[in-house]
Amino acid sequence: MSIPITSKVDKEATAEDLRALSPSELETWVTSMGEPRWRASQLLRWMYASKPVDSFESMTNLSTSLRSRLAQHVRMDRLRLQTLMTAQDQTVKALLQLPSGRSIESVLIPSFNDLHQATRMTVCVSSQVGCAMGCAFCATGKMGFLENLTCGQIVEQVTMMREISQERFGRDISNVVYMGMGEPLLNYRSVLSSLQILTHPDAVGLSPRRITVSTVGLARRIRDLAEDAPKIGLAVSLHSPIESKRSSIMPINRSVATDLTALEPAMRYHTKSTGRKLTFEYCLFRGFNDSSDDARKLARLCHRVHAKVNIIMYNRVPGIDFERTSEERLNEFMGLLSERGVTVTVRRSRGSDIAAACGQLANQRSD
User: Fold this and answer.
1) Span 295-347, pLDDT tens digits
2) Which residues are catalytically annotated?
3) Within 10 Å of residue 285's Cβ, how many Cβ atoms?
């Protein structure tokens, strides 16, 4: 079932790049062209389902006259693959160029069973070029904000990685996480539209429950997301349950509108409205946020907002003075959470040898 996207998408749709339109906007646009509404479904299938086409001429179930009009009046912007890198663990990172000339990075993360057969295939997508949040431990934040992506540019990362997944592993994409470059909720309109495309049966056709949006914690937008896309998973980059510590590494926490005091009721609203637990993403930094006191306070916060914890083993970023915690401390930290009834998992490094792991996406060729 596709996600209904209502109040946050403009009623009037103008088209220069068809891939910048949500399905509902595409319907509005085709009817304004004097075409029946179902033409939008045909266009969605050509742009996103199976192997997307590059030209209107390839859309063979459209009339010749309609294809000609499309070619005259609109375009379909595409991403250009610049570099493809493969890590020792088979994680794949793609450097993709936008029509603006700037580039983004996307990651395909395969999971394997005990027989070394590929099972779950996850695509980590970017929503912006760079990021304005400036988190102290993240390479992307060092770039600053440069550009928002359109919904089509977000979705095309998935369709390109889908082809790579099918060719290399014989598997289709199973999950999508908005954990690449950028803060998704600062590009809210495009992210919502991309969610609609990803879950539309005539486009990518993913289940909403297999998609997770990660945010540093924009309280107002978290409430909006609960209303606009309640079946989508929410992950909050927390990294400390203590105001002063979180503020020291995450500038977002230095405002009374976006600190933990403001964020907590928004998270409670999300879990109550959607009926789903949210996930705290928690990088364990040696000597900073890995103490027993940190664990106890994190457990209390989890119970207040109905959250589980995904611990991330930090990946070193050149020029950033953070180190991952020890395995011994990791086990103690997880034990303290588990003893207090908190569901906790750990995410190991994937693709760190090609700078594709959490916090490492920085687009070294951005200049």
Assistant:
1) 999 999 999 999 999 999 887 777 788 888 999 999 999 999 999 999 999 98
2) 105, 358
3) 20
